[in-house]
Amino acid sequence: MDEKRAMVLEPTFPQIIYNAKLKEDENLDTPGSMYVTWASNSRCQGKGVVKYCEANNCPASNIFKKFVKVHQYLHVDGSGTKKTRMGYAFRATMTNLKQNTTYNYVTGIFVGNGTIFWGKSFQFKTFPNDPNWKPSVLILGDMATDNDQAWPFIVEDALNSVDVIIHAGDFAYNLDFDVGHNGDKFMTMIEPVATRIPYMPVVGNHESHLNFSEYFNRFTTSGPHSLFYSINVGPFHIIALSSEFYFEVKYGLDQILTQYNWLKNDLETANKNRDKQKWIITFCHRPIYTTTNGLIKGKHPEKLRNGFDNFPGFEKIFIDNKVDISFWAHEHNYERFYPLNDYNYNISQNPHIYQNFSGIPHFIVGNAGSQEKFDPFDESHPPWSAFRKLVYGYAKLTNLNSTSLYVSAYGIHEANHTKYLMDYVTITY
Question: What confidence score (pLDDT) does residue 24 get?
């Protein structure tokens, strides 16, 4: 076999870990595994390969290889033309990984005559097996390939002090535009981070074209259904949900109950495992609370919050199962709410400390930046909205200790393009 680097004559999509997850086994001595997904615009001979090894122990005898079959799919332009083109995706699982260890990896595609075209080499580090580990999660939403104001600062922050990234819906604006080339552009844009840090997607309304086909073909998630899933990251049990089932009803209503029943079982299990994952955190695209102009107690938020026509919403099951924090996007702004339950709210003496409260703290982080710019707030400022601002940015979630979480939100000064701490809150249970 001729394993060599070579120039690809057709444009090749960069090899990327879209979203990696270290599986947490009951037996902590059992090695974990990491998913890797990569894609190409070039024709291939039916399979791909990933090579990986420990960064500090990588002789030829220690290199693992995983071969996978190609997944061929059709890009269908979502911007008004009838153009199509083929795409080629690969999904592999890197196994036998040690905890808290840095690995080198490289992906490749077979192009004929036994020749493999190799991509660039990358590194990732597996999660530690440490009950005192305090992971940091970066949250962003609604980011396009144009006007991605927050992205340079997200990259800098992520590569220095972040363990997982959650993108709460609306990628590229849109993944399917220009026959999927805009999606390729977006994935190339996130490559510096997504090749090193788990980049976990949450589906949004901008992914809905042809029943979310571009989303399904580009992203790999944990579990049997890519539009809703959960992962454990140290003390965090992270749940990703689809708000779009409630609105894209042309694809069927059964999906609402399928997700709800899965969520019910997942929350029941998560509550039994509070000794390992103390915090239950949810992520979803469209919010159930917002003070965006025209949407206060509006039709769409209420549909998600309470459900409709005997289809259940999110709030009751969140409250009943003691969800600790909920993050949302969709609205192109940043907003932090006091802990809420059916618009009943708790205000503490210090607005930056939530303590001894009922309800759930909610955050909207849909301000990473797109050509649609901002969604202005209503002129009124309801008392259950603690802080809101029209500014580009993102947020971070950190586990302070066994009883407290810290959420920090960062804004971007457009004039001089600098980052600043815009908002923060300590949440103590």
Answer: 42
